[in-house]
Amino acid sequence: MEKTREPKPFKRGMGPLVSVLIPTRKRPKHLLECVDSLWSLAIDKSLLEFVFKVDDDDEETIRVVQFISRIVPSKAIFSLRGRGYLELGTWARQMSEVASGDWIFLFNDDARIATQGWDQFLLYSVDNTWHGTGDVMALVAPTIGKPFNNQFLFLRHETFKILGHWDGTGPYNDNWIYHVMDMVGSVMIVPIFIRHFHEECQDEVRKELVAAMDESKINWNNPEGIAGRIKDSQKLLDYINDHRLPPT
User: How far apart are CA 233 and CA 181, in angstroms?
Assistant: First the structure.
């Protein structure tokens, strides 16, 4: 009879388990609902922290983030808007650099967690060190109604530190990281489900994001973009080779 594999614990640091990274603009109601879903459905709230990026001209959202910060553990970056969503890779990097969690989770203000106890799935996972190190790993949280969407990723913070960035080409941070991690076989799906309401949010923010995505497609699909993902995968492979433990 085949022996059932026991879940293995991921390495824990001294800080929170997961840092939720939320860049947000002019959607205070959505932001409150987004944070509430993450906070209220977590079993152990001491495991969470939030990191926000807000444009310094968005006074209403700044006030909402300051209100949220009195309720939940959080950090905030208030900075220039710059080129808008074309700067999303820079924002993701800045938020990741101030985050303290073992996992970093780039989230959307128009999304909601839909799974009770979602935080507990980040503590254990079967075969999380199949290549010898749990430092290189990403977990995909499926989007309800969109089975092929790989947008919502929990990324080991150590993986970000190895790479030093998400995606430098614009809004495609999640896709970039997914493809990089897939090339080194370090992506697993976890039963943490997401509701994403972006198609219902046909506001000016949505229009700006779509325009930035259209402008960035050439950087994603051109040879330089492909070479960049291969280079990132090689960085991770080098780390795995240097740090993997012998099989037990």
Answer: 7
Give the residue numbers spanning the domain of 160: 9-241
How far apart are alpha carbons 164 and 140 in whole angstroms?
A: 20
Condensed to tens digits (0 to 9), the pLDDT of residues 30-84 reads 999 999 999 999 999 999 999 999 999 999 999 999 999 999 999 999 999 888 8
Write the DSSP symbol of residue 147.
T
- In this prediction, residue 244 has a pLDDT band, given cuts at 50, 70 and 90, of confident
For the chain, the domain total comes to 1
User: CB atoms < 10 A from the CB of 14, how many?
Assistant: 6
Structure tokens at 10: 């991921």
Residue 127 in domain: yes
Q: Are 141 and 229 in contact (CB under 8 A)?
A: no
User: CA-CA distance, 185 to 131, in Å (whole number)?
Assistant: 9
Smallest CA-to-CA distance from 82 within 94, 100, 96, 64 is with: 94
d(CA 68, CA 65): 5
Q: Is residue 75 part of a domain?
A: yes
Give just the sign of the alpha carbon dihedral 149, 214, 106, 199.
Answer: negative
Of 236, 222, 139, 128, nearest to 180 by C-alpha is 236
CATH number at residue 211: 3.90.550.10
With respect to residue 1, please indicate whether it lies within any of the assigned structural domains.
no
- Residue 246: inside a domain: no
Q: What's 133's DSSP letter?
A: -
Residue 23 pLDDT > 70, yes or no?
Answer: yes
> At 92, which amino acid appears?
A
